[in-house]
Design a protein that fits this description.
Elements (H helix, E strand, L loop, with lengths): L1 H5 L4 E7 L4 H13 L7 E7 L16 E7 L2 E6 L15 H16 L4 E3 L11
Parallel strand pairs: 1-2, 4-5
Antiparallel strand pairs: 1-3, 3-4
Length: about 130
């Protein structure tokens, strides 16, 4: 808890998901790779949605893996070009995509924005 209090101006990135699922394992590896690179601007946490069910309905957490961004107790929305501005609900290809998104979100929230435009358009990249 002291870590959150000392670093008030950092993003909180939460990976909600089911840790045993392959998508979640792949995303966790990417999150682990970026953790040190974004340490000054973000803290990364994981939540097992089968054990902690309090947020499942509120944030519509029904996917195997979802990544959401928060800043100063506010949920930050990101326009990734997919139509779902609440979360990233697919596995990113590499750590550089995630670092670009994190840096853009951080710059946007520091300016007071609630909806951040992603530097990468995922509308054609991921078809559901």
């Amino acid at each position: 808890m002291k870590l959150f209090i000392k670093k008030k101006n950092r993003l909180v990135i939460i990976r909600f998901g089911i840790p045993d699922k392959i998508e979640c394992k792949r995303m966790d590896k990417i999150l682990e790779k970026v953790m040190l690179s974004v340490y000054d601007i973000a803290i990364i946490c994981t939540v097992d949605i089968e054990k902690v069910v309090d947020f499942n309905e509120m944030y519509e957490l029904y996917d195997n893996c979802s990544v959401m961004f928060f800043f100063r107790n506010r949920h930050i929305m990101i326009d990734l070009g997919t139509g779902n501005n609440n979360k990233i609900d697919w596995v990113l290809q590499d750590k550089f995509e995630l670092i670009d998104i994190i840096e853009s979100v951080y710059r946007g929230v520091r300016k007071g924005k609630n909806l951040i435009l992603s530097p990468i358009d995922f509308s054609k990249k991921y078809r559901f």
